[in-house]
Amino acid sequence: MTEMTKIVAKAPSGKQAPLGPAVGGAFPGIRALPGAGRIGDRVFRTLTAGSGALVLVTMVAIGSYLVVAAWPALHANSGNLFTTQVWRPQADPPVFGIAAIAFGTVVSSLIAVVIGVPVAVGVALGVSQYLPRRWASVLGGLIDLLAAVPSLVFGMWGLYYLIPHTRGFQQWLSTYLGWIPIFRNRTATLTGQYGQSLLMAGIVLAIMIIPIVASICREVFARTPGPTIDAALALGATRWEVIRSAVLPFGRSGIASAAMLGLGRALGETIAVALVLSSGFTINWHLTELGGDTVASTIVLKFGEAGSSPVAIAALMLAGLCLFAVTLVVNATARLIVARKVATP
Amino acid sequence: MTTAISIPRTERPTLNAKRLPRSAPGIAGLTAVAAALTARGILHWTGYFTAGFTAALLYVLLLGVWSVAVEGRRRATDRIVGIVVGACLIAASIPLVMILGYIAVKGAPALSPTFLTHSMNGITGAQAGGGVYHALIGTLEQVGIAAAVALPIGILTAIYLVEFGRGAFARGVAFFVDVMNGVPSIVAGLFVFTFLLLGLGLRPFGAAGSVALVVLMLPIVIRSAEEMIRLVPHELREASDALGVPRWRTIVKVVLPTALSGLVTGSLLAISRVAGETAPLILLVGYSARINSDPLSGDQASLPVMIWDQLGKRSGDAGAFGETRAWGAALVLILLVLAVNLAARLLARLTGPRSW
User: Fold this and answer.
1) Which of A27, A287, A296, B88 gives 20 to 30 Å between its CA and that of A277?
2) Counting Cβ atoms within 10 Å, is residue B235 exposed (0-12), middle (13-18) or buried (19+)?
3) For the whole model, what pTM was predicted?
4) Are residues B53 and B173 in the same domain?
């Protein structure tokens, strides 16, 4: 308080000088008085803008370092990066491709989105529209807590608890829905032979993305204009009709964006998938069969054996670069969906 | 926002419309459970999964049909959607309870004072004993360094975005903060690996992991700090501006103190988010069974990598006692993460405006 009075006291004592340059920020029309603060303002502004620039620099650096590090692998590879289904960068000549692991990544992430997003939307609706405030706060906090559980712990739970306890479920899928090829398991005959499949990886990923998607959707739903809801209620709408006619149309782009963010998170998830899946380098549409692998989990699992082989390291960098590029596109799309929404309300 | 609200004319609600009795959901539920249990006995289902699923389906069906008959289609739809939403809430909470319960059950036997105060030095997978002390030190140091770097940069960036950010540069920063939020942790690890370890020819060390954690933490810190600073009422800034206070002093003396509790909460949540990161640490910090309290040189253990090691993922052999220790370490890790997380929430609850 004393600091402020000092400055105020100083201001009138100076000569009547022309007003200083615009400070910018929240009040573009207001110009700062010349004097004590101007250099400080400039320094402070530069400091904060510099921190912001660091974000841009980091993103550019990630991309360019990965490109440079991955370059040798492109030349050394005797297979086709996008169609080869083996990963032997230490062979002579080196042969590797991301076909199988890209398939695993996309399929497990899609399963995660298909299962996780509807549940997350339901959770967000429940918390924002159904539950009384007190309960909503408790349950919302609980689901946010789920976001804080480390992915390593998710993976351990998935591998040691969920998979052994859902073998029967997978067998059931294969037995009764086996006429749909993706559910058919051609190899297993006993319950114990089901387990570490792409389907289970997708389910673990679904559980992991629910809190993220739910918290974004909840925020979007909470922003539904009150008058629109009141109007619907005044017309005698039931709770579901309010949701269908007011909340969902308003939140459509928000849900789309949240789903994209969830997809991005699932695509890049590493440790949980590395624990849940047992390695496999062929494209296999039978999702209840063992095997499968994703780009991210391959990187972490193959890193140890890559050792000091430059080509093997570069090959992993190449896989990382592909993953980076895909998540970049997905996240940028998610962001653009929301940006367009905000621009034209 | 213009939204067409259409309610079928034929089914205008009337004040004396027939409704189901209050006990209807209870009756339908009990009937459904009883029917499912009977079916389980007759058809010899093993386990309770199928029976539970059948009961849920029967419940929806019973209540739906009953409601259509008495209240009409609109109310019936409303009831069923309500049940589905409730099911989603339950489905999302179950994994959390199960994960926490499972970790507690599996990890508790390993926990002991010795486990918390001893390292794994000289202990093989086939031997009992040892503990997490070395990994705990590593995790605290690595996350501490990451926080010390990421929090100031993040909060300064958030200040820039809220207080100064206009024009293409600011829009670019805001855009890339969001995109950076989606950078997979393994990619952050690969990036730091190329430029710190490959580029400078260094051996793995603790602080290298911190750099990757900074990359992961920055966008989280920026986003939450941005939100908190935006919450500071404009009137406060206007009042300060009207007194002729320079903008930077307004920010330091008025805006930041007002947003302080929110900033602390956001920072703690960001810390709890990255404390359990595993993938980048596997690439960057190495692992040492010995206590290494110097984050700047030599392999340093951390809780996630210790778990990875004890599960036999590094050596290929967990040994007879590895798994028990892995669960113990996982319990320590999750308690640490949840403690920070809950502290943040408690702080928000006590000081800030209500969310959720």
Assistant:
1) B88
2) exposed
3) 0.88
4) no
Residues A97 and A69 in one domain: no
CB contact under 8 A, B7 and A241: yes
Instruction: Verify whether the Cβ–Cβ distance A240 to B81 is below 8 Å.
Output: yes
Out of A30, A41, A332, whose CB is closest to B248? A41
What is the spatial distance between Cα A256 and Cα A324, in angstroms, rounded to a whole number?
21
Please check whether residues B101 and B125 belong to one and the same domain: no
Nearest CB to A69: which of B78, B176, B198?
Answer: B198
Looking at residue B298, which CATH number applies to its domain?
Answer: 1.10.3720.10
Q: Clarify whether residues A254 and A339 are in a common domain.
A: yes
Q: Do A232 and A302 reside in the same domain of the chain?
A: yes
State pLDDT tens for residues A218-229.
989 988 898 999
For the stretch A10-19, pLDDT in tens is 444 334 444 4
Q: What is the pLDDT of residue B14?
A: 58
Q: Taking CB atoms and an 8 Å limit, are B157 and A299 in contact across chains?
A: no
Confirm whether B4 is domain-assigned.
no
Report pLDDT for A19. 44
Q: For position B5, what pLDDT does the model report?
A: 62
How many domains does chain B divide into?
2
DSSP of A123-190, one letter per residue? HHHIIIIIS-HHHHHHHHHHHHHHHHS-HHHHHHHIIIIIHHHTHHHHHHHHHHSTTSGGG--SS--S
Domain count, chain A: 2
In a domain, A81, yes or no: no
**Contact call for A49 and B160, based on CB within 8 A:** yes
Task: Name which of A72-76, A112-116, B1-5, B66-70 the model is least confident about.
Answer: B1-5
Residue in A closest to B198 by C-alpha: A69
A136 and A43, same structural domain? no
Q: 3-state class of A88 per DSSP?
A: strand
Q: What is the mean pLDDT of chain A?
A: 85
